[in-house]
Design a protein that fits this description.
Elements: E1 10-21, E2 29-38, E3 41-47, E4 56-62, E5 67-70, E6 72-74, H1 86-93, H2 98-103, H3 108-116, H4 120-135, E7 139-145, H5 152-168, E8 172-180, H6 189-207, E9 212-217, H7 224-236, E10 242-245, H8 253-259, E11 264-267, H9 273-282, E12 285-288, H10 290-295, H11 304-310, E13 314-316, H12 330-341, H13 345-351, H14 354-359, E14 377-380, H15 385-390, E15 397-402, E16 405-406
Parallel strand pairs: 1-4, 1-5, 6-7, 7-8, 8-9, 9-10, 10-11, 11-12, 12-13
Antiparallel strand pairs: 1-2, 2-3, 5-14, 14-15, 15-16
Helix pairs in contact: 4-5, 6-7, 8-9, 12-13
The protein binds N-(iminomethyl)-L-glutamic acid and fe (iii) ion.
């Protein structure tokens, strides 16, 4: 709220007469607040009464008492894929489990087959049509994982598509390489893992093709010691890591993620108390994915009480994918995190803003409304922040602001 920062400066845009949830310190509510931006960044935020009287901006926007939150951040998606897995939904409804379907060559491998057959352009176009749902909900940063190519060229094509999506729409994309998502059927295990470690990760690091490295640590995917070798390669090449951890069973994923100071460990239904404690010590964010929990009818929710007790930051994401979480609404994910996992409204809001930024290693630039951060905002037609998460229909978004520009 540095007033001095405004003297002698003319802002590009000033939003006035707003109720603001800065999400900087808890929800950081400011009744009757104002936000000023210049060159795409926030230069001032605070109570309107504290705004220097001589401050001027090229454009002044009266928000008529509307709520402003940070632009939303979906920190875990598999947005880019081809094909359709509705047959698996029918199979699960008829009694088969996700793991059984995966072992029979369905699941991730079914999407792999369709994705390998698609061109980069086809993948981009399909993902862009899905992305409209995020943009309509005020999302300004989305993470997108590869992981449905499972060979060098197809994985690099997915990462190329992720970068392209960020160029084609006013949204920031964090691209994550998820080569260790499932074992491709056409290679021996050690050969595939060596390819990830010795060819693909070095190439990604050298050409900045991804912002982080992810893996799926599970009995139907990769063992902890296999993931550890992938993470060691990531570390050698200066890339941060994330992990699909303890989703279907306790495989020690939370502790493994913490050992590598992962940005996040995601899912976590079966994470142990020790794993959660290690995450707290390492500063690893817990990314809760209630869409997959719901679709797979998981009997056990993630250990939220332990996360609170040990002070683990909790983020919430859609996990949008064609199999376990065909969910395109981050606000609905937040709703489900409240209803299914017992998050408070405040926890859910931080989960899709500040803590989601931390899960992407981007706390310095996004996730809250603070001077110096990107001016990414969502302006809402709502009476209350609880109402936004309590509603399960289309989001009452008034306007989305991306790097200071109203969309
Ligand atoms: O996050 N858990 C592993 N990966 C995805 C599911 C991918 C799929 O089934 O296509 C997830 O839920
Ligand atoms: Fe996932």
């Amino acid at each position: 709220m540095a007033m001095a920062g405004l003297s002698g400066i003319r802002g590009d845009r000033l939003w006035k007469n707003a109720r603001i949830a800065t999400c900087a310190a808890d929800l950081g509510i400011i009744e009757s607040g104002a936000i000023a931006c210049r060159d795409g960044r926030i230069i001032w935020v605070g109570p309107q009464s504290a705004l220097p009287p001589d401050f001027d901006a090229l454009e002044i926007i009266d928000c008529a008492g509307r709520w402003i939150t940070p632009g939303l951040i979906d920190c875990h998606t598999h947005l880019i894929f081809a094909g359709n897995r509705s047959d698996e939904f029918a199979r699960r409804q008829a009694g088969e489990s996700y793991a059984d379907i995966a072992r029979s060559g369905g699941g991730i491998l079914a999407t792999m087959r369709a994705t390998r057959d698609a061109s980069e352009n086809q993948l981009v176009e399909a993902a862009l049509s899905r992305l409209d749902a995020w943009i309509a909900e005020g999302v300004t940063t989305i993470e997108i994982k590869s992981g449905y190519g499972l060979d060098r060229d197809a994985e690099l094509r997915l990462l190329g598509a992720a970068r392209e999506i960020g160029h084609r729409r006013p949204i920031d994309v964090a691209a994550t390489y998820l080569g260790a998502h499932a074992m491709p059927p056409d290679r021996p295990r050690d050969v595939y893992l060596a390819m990830i470690r010795d060819q693909i990760i070095p190439c990604i690091a050298a050409n900045k093709l991804a912002d982080a490295i992810d893996g799926f640590c599970e009995t139907i995917a990769f063992a902890p010691d296999e993931i550890a070798t992938v993470f060691e390669a990531a570390r050698r090449h200066g890339l941060p890591v994330k992990l699909h951890a303890d989703q279907l069973s306790d495989g020690g994923g939370a502790g493994l993620a913490a050992r590598f100071r992962a940005l996040s460990a995601d899912h976590l239904e079966y994470a142990s108390e020790d794993g959660v404690k290690a995450m707290a010590q390492a500063g690893t964010v817990a990314v809760l994915l209630p869409g997959a929990f719901y679709m797979l009818r998981e009997p056990q929710p993630p250990p939220i009480a332990a996360m609170r007790r040990h002070g683990v930051a909790m983020a919430v994401a859609t996990d949008c994918n064609p199999g376990t979480s065909p969910l395109t609404s981050l606000l609905l994910a937040a709703n489900m995190a409240c209803v299914l996992f017992g998050l408070t409204i405040g926890e859910a809001w931080l989960g899709i803003t500040r803590h989601a930024a931390a899960a992407l290693g981007r706390s310095a630039s996004i996730g809250s409304i603070e001077a110096g951060k990107a001016c990414d905002l969502a302006i809402w037609n709502t009476e209350s922040l609880a109402g936004l998460i309590g509603w399960m229909g289309p989001a009452p978004l008034h306007q989305r602001v991306f790097k200071g520009i109203s969309q």
